[in-house]
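Escalation from tier 1.

The customer reports that the assembly of three entities below gives different structure tokens on two consecutive runs. Tier 1 could not reproduce it. I'm attaching the input and our single run for tier 2 to review.
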Amino acid sequence: MARAVTHQRKTLNTAIAWGIGLLIFFPVLWTILTSFKTEAQAIADPPVFFFFDWTLENYAVVQERSDYMRYLLNSVIIAGVSTVLGIVVAVPAAWSMAFVPSRRTKDILLWMLSTKMLPAVGVLYPIYLIFIELELLDTRTGLVIVMMLINLPIIVWMLYTYFREIPGEILEAARMDGASLREEILYVLTPMAVPGIASTLLLNFILAWNEAFWTLNLTAAKAGPLTAFIASYSSPEGLFYAKLSAASTMAIAPILILGWFSQKQLVRGLTFGAVK
Amino acid sequence: MATLHSRSAARAMMAPAVFLLLVWMLVPLTMTLWFSFKRYLPLRGGDLGWTGFDNYVRFVTSSAFWPSVQATLLIVGGVLLITVLVGVLLALLLDQPMWGQGVVRILVIAPFFVMPTVSALVWKNMFMDPVNGLFAHLSKFFGLAPLEWLSQAPLFSITLIVSWQWLPFATLILLTALQSLDREQLEAGEMDGAPPLARFLHIVLPHLAQAITIVVLIQTIFLLSIFAEIFVTTQGSFGTRTLTYLIFQRVLESQNVGLGSAGGVYAIILANIVALFLMRIVGRNLDA
Amino acid sequence: MGRMVLEKVEKRFGDVTVIPPLDLEIEDGEFVVFVGPSGCGKSTLLRLIAGLEDVTGGVIRIDGRDATTVPPAKRGLAMVFQSYALYPHMTVRKNISFPLRMAKLDKAEQDRRVEQAAAVLNLTDYLDRRPGQLSGGQRQRVAIGRAIVREPAAFLFDEPLSNLDAALRVGMRLEISELHERLKTTMIYVTHDQVEAMTMADKIVVLHAGRIEQVGSPLELYRTPRNRFVAGFIGSPRMNFLEGPEARRHDASAIGIRPEHIMPSPNEGAWKGRVGVSEHLGSDTFLHVHMEGCADPVTVRSGGEVDMHHGDTIYMTPDAGHIHRFDDQGLRIA
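Tier 1 run:
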């Protein structure tokens, strides 16, 4: 049984933890705040925190000048389609490895993981060349394919660990109860697996959204997602802090919100089940 | 036979994933190996024939190689040191009873979800800019001369940015591991007369050992290939050209594909050495 | 109907033989218990009958029909799993009616059978809850309810009580026996607990390393165990075995005598020993007596209010009619 903790102790913990939490979060907070300032206020010395003239002008300018919506659409399509495709390929594989394991299952899983460890830069030129040959450079299709492949091992792994938690006896019970394979999957397995599939979807969407090696190297103006959009602010627009902040806020806001839902899955997904 | 049938069905269900990953791994890998033994300059004459191990030798003997190894080691080592040390402390703190624990967790995790290009740009311009950055304002407030972070302390600056991005990952995993510690073990330790520090050293830390190892291994693999943070900030200048960035420059900027591919093979070997250790831990967990 | 015949049924996993060929007959309406230590193959045997594992060789007949390759659902059997295997996302009602829905029974009939089963099992008030909101005993009842509604030819139970606490276990034991009396359907019940076997079975099948050691009614096994394994496994506390000169006096390589067949006395008897630990249960007292030349203490049952203490000298007289003799193979000498 947990012991009662003194009030002072808890207050102290709270103060320290909130202080550190806010410090770590500060760059994000500062970016969001700055996005609502005028350019003059954004570089004001001393800096202004909350008491400035809040404006939405930066967002309008960013959209107008650099066509934010197109990049956003690219990000959504690339991250979304690659994740869904990955899951479509991975669900049967993970299902069979979890419920009909063989002696080679472990080796296959580890091998899949090893492909994830391949440093991207080591295969940059071949992929680049293949993309030129197949006319995939700067296309959404090309990025969807690459994104699906680099996340496939994580997707298989996450699904596998979720599926393995479904007790085999339940599937046997369904079989004894007269469910066909189709009914077993439809009425018993799917409802139990949906939470796991949803978490996998979420985390891999986030990973694909933030991927910044292939997106920077394989896209230009046409198929570039938000990572490339932001990189284009590198200079000299980067000196316009308020607009940079507005662009940044728009690029990270959707994911920050999704990310908060996926904290728990994050650990499982990125440690391949080794830490739960 | 029901189970025999399900076995062959299982193999069929695995096939697409296995096939895709096999192609994804073998084709580019073979091509990289192929190019690494060629003198191949797409913009300056194209394929100039086989050169044996020439590229491998030239890659490691070029003047850029050792500085890049050094930069890589300093960045990876620095980030690991910061994230693990701060991560353990932060995990211990977050495990304490407090008000608003959930909110603090969210605040701490947030940086992980910020895309690398955004965090690099925000840090570069809004914090580290020598004229208008917050750090410059801060230095002036204390009467100090503002530092030109990215040119005067480039490696430290990049280490700082990357640590900020990866601290949440380390913290979250260590916190999860910490929460799986059997409280009765701690109580047993207390009954046995172990003071808090001894309990941390003899009970908590050994329990975290596996999680720390995993954090180190996984981060190493990702950190060896950090790219966007350098691409957006220094473009590899001021001694921040890591191995990954060097290979990128050889392949895409100077279009010396043979040389870059040899570098790529080195990077693959390096990553595989780390991966091997990681796989052993993960594999052991699979059996459990 | 639920008569089952196993002929030369055999199971191997790769090179490992789990069950060497065995024959077994189960009559309609019988309550049969498979009992044995863990790893003896009793669960595997049950799963072979259920159809959840393929047999490597041999034939399984259910009511005269060859069911060896019939899929589990078509064998007309219902199974209660050790973990209960309830569907966590369905209410109790949906759980119980699941096999009926799979069999495409009409809705009215489904409801009738579910209500009936719920009434029998005292689950009527819980029909709209989910398994996560039920206690262990209630979950167990839901699992049984799911089996009952199918009106199967036989029920298969795989260690159904092992996840319950001791008090509930006794209660459920009675309920299952009661259910058997009422339904008169064949039941095959797997357990490692010989008390469950003795109290519930019409017929006990003792398994050891995949082989059937003995088949018989509880009292047959108690009175005339075929070998030392069965003798030691059935009965609580377990039978005492004596080897050496004492056994040779009976022309055997070992003799066995149950604690309840030894008469203790403070001053005279055939064997002499020293009292070790004594366990007072109230109704009985079990004395663990150390005897010269015996490695293990001999357990003796005595009355509840016995005046014996640690270190006392004790004399014991075995009941000559209840001495079991075994040869050097461990087999019973008639």
